[in-house]
C-alpha cells in the first residue's frame, strides 16, 4: 500500500482537537504532575485554550498532515519590531472553571513558565510534537526543516532556538545531529518543584 505524502500546512481551528491530543501525548508527564487531570480533561483543556487564544502576529503554528490526519505540529515565536501586544489580561480564564479553579490556576502558572520571550533575530521553537505512531519516520525532520526555511526567508532572523529537558537525552541528541548546540544549561528549582524537571538546555542553531 502506497504511503500518502506528508504536507506541512498552517494551523486551522478545525485541527484543534487533533493537536490537543498530540499535546497530551507530549506533555502529560508535565501537566499531570502539576494537576489531577486525566488525558481526556487535558485534551479538552488544550482544545479550549487553542480556541480562546487570540491571534498573535509574533507566533505561528504549523501542522504535519498525512491523508487528512494531523501527525505532527510545530510552533514558533519571534520578536517583532513593533510594540503591538495582545491583551492577555482579557483572556477568559473564567470559562475554564469546569476544570476546577485549582487545576486552572496551576495550569496557568505552568503555561506562563513555558512562555519564553525570544530576542531580536531569534526564531524560538516553542514546541515540536510528533504523534507516537509516526515517530522515527521523518516527520520531525520535516517540521524542523520548515522552521529553518522560515528563518532563511526572513531577512531579520538569523537563528533557531529551543529548550529541551535534561531528562530528554534522546531529543537533545537528535537536535545535535541537525547542528543545534547547547548555548546555556539552566537549573530551575521552580521547574523542579512544579514539574520534577530541574535541568534544561537552551540550544541554538545559527542559520545565517
Automatic annotation (TrEMBL):
Entry keyword ATP-binding: no
Q: Which InterPro entries match?
A: Acyl_CoA_acyltransferase (IPR016181), Bact_Acetyltransf (IPR050832), GNAT_dom (IPR000182)
The N-acetyltransferase domain is annotated at 6-208
Question: According to its UniProt record, what is one Pfam family this protein matches?
Answer: Acetyltransf_1
**Keywords recorded for this protein, A-Z:** Acyltransferase, Transferase
Please list the GO terms describing molecular function: acyltransferase activity, transferring groups other than amino-acyl groups
Designated name of the protein = GNAT family N-acetyltransferase
Amino acid at each position: 500500500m502506497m504511503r500518502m505524502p506528508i504536507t506541512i500546512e498552517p494551523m486551522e481551528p478545525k485541527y484543534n482537537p487533533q493537536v490537543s491530543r498530540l499535546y497530551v501525548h507530549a506533555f502529560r508527564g508535565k501537566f499531570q504532575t502539576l494537576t489531577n487531570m486525566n488525558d481526556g480533561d487535558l485534551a479538552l483543556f488544550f482544545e479550549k485554550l487553542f480556541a480562546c487564544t487570540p491571534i498573535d502576529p509574533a507566533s505561528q503554528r504549523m501542522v504535519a498532515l498525512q491523508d487528512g490526519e494531523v501527525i505532527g505540529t510545530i510552533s514558533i515565536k519571534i520578536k517583532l519590531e513593533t510594540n503591538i501586544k495582545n491583551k492577555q489580561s482579557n483572556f477568559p480564564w473564567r470559562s475554564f472553571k469546569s476544570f476546577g479553579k485549582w487545576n486552572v490556576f496551576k495550569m496557568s502558572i505552568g503555561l506562563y513558565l513555558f512562555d519564553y520571550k525570544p530576542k531580536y533575530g531569534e526564531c524560538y521553537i516553542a514546541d515540536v510534537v510528533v504523534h507516537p505512531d509516526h515517530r522515527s519516520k521523518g516527520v520531525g525532520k520535516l517540521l524542523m526543516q520548515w522552521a529553518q526555511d522560515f528563518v532563511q526567508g526572513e531577512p531579520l532572523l538569523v537563528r533557531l532556538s529551543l529548550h529541551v529537558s535534561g531528562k530528554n537525552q534522546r531529543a537533545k541528541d537528535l537536535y545535535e545531529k541537525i547542528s543545534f548546540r547547547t548555548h546555556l544549561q539552566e537549573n530551575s528549582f521552580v521547574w523542579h518543584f512544579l514539574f520534577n524537571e530541574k535541568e534544561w538546555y537552551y540550544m541554538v542553531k545559527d542559520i545565517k
